[in-house]
Structures are given as C-alpha cells and as structure tokens.
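Intended use. Records like the one below are meant for learning the mapping from a protein sequence to its folded structure. Do not use them to infer anything beyond what is encoded.
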Amino acid sequence: MNILKIHNLTTLFDKKRILNDISLTARQPEVIAILGPNGAGKSTLLKAIMHHFSMKTQGSIKFNNHELTKMSTDKIAKLGVFYATQNPIELEGVQTLDFLKIIANENSPKQKVGFYQLYSKINELIKLLDLPSEILTRNVNVGFSGGQKKKNEILQSQLFNPSLILLDEIDSGLDFDATKLIANFINKKRHERITFIVSHQLEFLHQVNISKVIILIDGKIVKIGGTALIREIEKNGYKQYAANIKSEADFEITDPYLTCHKK
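Structure written out for the chain above:
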C-alpha cells in the first residue's frame, strides 16, 4: 500500500512564500483533485513533492517512508513518482522511440524489455491514445501539438507504471474526445497508485473517479471534501473561500485516509 505524508510543508521561491504549512496524508488508491485560483500554489505542491530545483522547502514529505525533501529528483522518480508537467519540454536530438525505450528499461532494471515486446506495447498505447505512429521517429515533443504533448505524457506514464502520479493540468489543450480518453486512462489505473490532479477544467474532473477535493487559497488548504465541492465551485467560484479562510480546526474530514494535522 503506497502512502504519501506531507507535514508542515512551507515552500519558498525567490524568497517568496508560496505554500504555507501544508499537511496531508494520501493513500493508494486515492485520486485527489487539487483546486484553487491561479497562483494558489497547486503546481508548487506537485513540484515540491518532486523536490524541484527552483524552490526551497521546510517541513517533511514522505513517500513510503522515504524523505523526499532530502532526495534528488531523479532518485524520487526511481521510487515510482511520475510528474506530468504542465508544459512538456521539447528534447531536440532525442528520438521519441529511444526515449520511451529508456523509460521502459528503467522501470525493469533487472531485465531489459525485449524490443519486439516493447514496440508492440508502444504501438498499442499509441493507438489507444489516438497518436500518429510517426511521432516515434520524431524528437520528443518537437513539432507536437499541445494535445499530442499531453498524450505523450500519458504514454510515458503507462510505460513507467508509477506508484504516485502527479498530473499538472493534463487536460489543458485537449479536445472533448481526448479529454475523455485521458480520464479513462486515469480511472483504469487508479487502484494501482495514488493520483494527484491539478486542473482548471472542472468538467474534466466529472469524468474522473475523484476520491477527494482539496482547495488551496494563497498557499493554504482552506477546505477538503468530496466531489460536491466541484459543483460548489462551478456555482460560486473561489471567492467564497478567499473571503473567509478557515482554520484547519474547521475542516470537515470524512475520509480516514486523507487528513490534515495542526502544527
């Protein structure tokens, strides 16, 4: 059973405090939506889990008893943590097929995956994701559309098979059919891992089997609840929370596997 524990997490970026005393616990197979207005700290939370080089952190982030704040990003990834970035970068000179082979073999360190077996699996995923087969001969994300870049992130995650997956606006730039396809991939694998989703497209979240919703305002958790919160936000927006930020003592916690803790 995979478990992530965040305790009293505060982050600084360029001497500015972004997250302020965040504490939560998540366990497999939870799918957790992180919601909030622009600048609330949603992407920062995911980057802090990956120990992003651009920020300083105080507090503790433990995944399966490994203290992530003391580990480099590559070592965190090898623990089974996959971060699908909001803006996938282009890798000039790196062929997509070669890149995917590296991911698959990193996930099977004891025995390299046979080429035919790997190629068959990649082709199957490409068809399921409705990607053109010629992307395999192109450089990673170079010349890809926004939607193709996001689908490529999902393709990589399927080969990596993570225990904790962090999806940062994975739905942005996708049309209706692609959004539904990505939601189906998330739902199909949800029982094998912990999933965090950051999204501004609330209609996308209705297609995903969400366990919990966490609302961030100004770097603080202001409310935790079920999917009814999504409908509440659709109706009233985030101003209701910004105007009256509650203390952690006021949180209504209904899930024993997702909790907040006072300092």
